[in-house]
Amino acid sequence: MADYRNCMECGADLLADDIAIHRKLIQRNAEEFYCIDCLAELMGHTRPEIEKLIKYYRDSGQCTLFR
Ligand SMILES: [Zn+2]
């Protein structure tokens, strides 16, 4: 079960990035997650902005959530 999650809002399948950015932006130890679309709406951002953040954290190599 560990690696299979769905968005708690819309039920979309989640990728590792979706989970990582949720943990980064919402709650580090979250057990339920939003997909990027729902997360973007929740935070008042657009999907491209969230994707840009994901890329930023991934490229920085600083965040252990994005490895
Ligand atoms: Zn969703």
Strand content: under 5%
Secondary-structure element pattern, one letter each: HHH
Total E-strand runs = 0
- The number of helices is 3
Query: Please, what is the average pLDDT?
Result: 90
Global geometry: globular
Assembly form of the protein = single chain
User: What are the distinct ligands in this entry?
Assistant: zinc ion
Rg from Cα: 11 Å
Number of domains: 1
What's the end-to-end separation, in Å? 20 Å
The helix content, as a percent range, equals 40-55%
> Which regions contain 5 or more consecutive residues with pLDDT less than 50?
none
Structural class: mainly alpha
- Give a short account of the largest sheet: none
What does it look like?
This protein has 67 residues and is mainly α. It has one domain. 48% of the residues lie in helices and 0% in strands. The chain has 3 helices and no strands. It has helices spanning 16-25, 36-43, 47-60. Helix 2 packs across helix 3. It starts with 15 loop residues before the first helix and ends in a 7-residue tail after the last helix. 16% of the residues are buried. The mean pLDDT is 90. Zinc ion binds next to helix 2. Zinc ion (ZN) is lined by residues 7, 9-10, 12, 34-35, 37-38.
Key structural traits:
mainly alpha; binds zinc ion; single chain; globular; 3 helices; 67 residues
List the helices and strands and how they pair.
Elements: H1 16-25, H2 36-43, H3 47-60
Helix pairs in contact: 2-3
This protein binds zinc ion (ZN).
Compact overview of the structure:
This protein has helices at residues 16-25, 36-43, 47-60. It has 3 helices and no strands.
